[in-house]
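Let's study today's protein:

:::
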Amino acid sequence: MRTTVTLDADVAARLKAIARQRGISFKEALNSAVRAGLGRERRAARAFKQYAQPMGLRAGFNLDKALQLAAAFEDEEIVRRLERRK
């Protein structure tokens, strides 16, 4: 089938380089690249899996209230600094 395709300059340059490396025509390089791209769509995507890590937080802190947690840590640091001055 004959059709007109407009390629971005970087894509055309890569296709020309591949054609030179493999010793094939630009048309063959383009068809090969399109086939490879279309073949990827048929593969089933792997399911995303989230791995959780323990954060090592102290009991009694509610992570849903991050500002409250930050304030508590800041208060502890202030107390620690004041105790050092004594």
User: Anything to note?
Assistant: The chain has a mean pLDDT of 86. The radius of gyration is 30 Å. The CA atoms of residues 21 and 62 lie 59 Å apart. The helical segments are 9-22, 26-42, 66-85.
